[in-house]
Write a structure and sequence with these properties.
It contains 5 helices and 9 strands. The chain is of the alpha+beta class. Strands 1-2-3-4-9-8-7-6 form an 8-stranded antiparallel β-barrel. Bound molecules: manganese (II) ion.
Length: 216
């Protein structure tokens, strides 16, 4: 059978359908120990979030929310604040597989995102836009719409956070802002006072030492 225009469009559709295509493309799984996950069918009762502190070329915090079987991700250079008067830049990056939630370790030199990753905070979250009568929005719609409001139940971060898209394009830019609720606290500086992993209790340099000595 000769391939028709329809087949070509179908192939393009299939290639873009997998939300993780761009995640796979950027990585060589023979070299990196990052998970080679897939888009999960399951929808967990309460969706999860993770914030990974990532010492790459520049230090940043990767904020990820489980939405429809993947972790929708943003790189937040300064991390999330607990002060509602602070707006933090968040650059949307490629969706990650759900398995990434636990990932902590060293991404080898020469690989995409080379550097050290630490699970800075994690927990469940819920969608604050879900129960607003006729204005209710699913997470997927809120993402599309460019306004996300979530309640985080982390160890370090709790309460409402709003994400607002300010620029579209290939790497959409958003602002992440603490909502003014009972968990807001203008005096806390969790990124500096609570630097350790909630998974292993380690700091970045301890992860480097341990992961590198294992390889020898
Ligand atoms: Mn990163």
């Amino acid at each position: 059978m000769r391939s028709t225009k329809c087949d070509i469009w179908y192939n393009i559709y299939m290639a873009t359908k997998n939300k993780l295509t761009s995640y796979y493309k950027k990585r060589d799984f023979k070299k990196t120990t990052e998970p080679r996950g897939k888009v999960e069918k399951k929808t967990s009762k309460s969706p999860i979030f993770v914030i990974q502190k990532h010492q790459a070329r520049n230090l940043h915090y990767d904020f990820r929310l489980e939405i429809n079987g993947v972790l929708v991700s943003w790189a937040v250079p300064k991390g999330l604040s607990t002060d509602p008067s602070v707006k933090r830049l968040a650059i949307q990056t490629e969706d990650h597989p759900l398995d990434y939630i636990d990932f902590e370790g060293v991404i080898p030199e020469g690989e995409y995102g080379a550097g050290t990753v630490l699970v800075w905070d994690t927990g469940s979250y819920h969608n604050l836009r879900a129960h607003k009568g006729k204005d209710s929005q699913s997470m997927e719609n809120a993402l599309e719409d460019g306004l996300i409001e979530v309640w985080l139940e982390g160890e370090k971060l709790k309460g409402g956070y709003a994400l607002k898209r300010t620029e579209g394009g290939k790497k959409p830019r958003w602002l992440v802002i603490k909502m003014d609720d009972e968990e807001a606290d203008a005096r806390r500086r969790p990124t500096s006072t609570q630097p350790r992993s909630v998974k292993s209790g380690r700091e970045l340099d301890e992860i480097v030492d341990e992961d590198t000595s294992q390889d020898e």
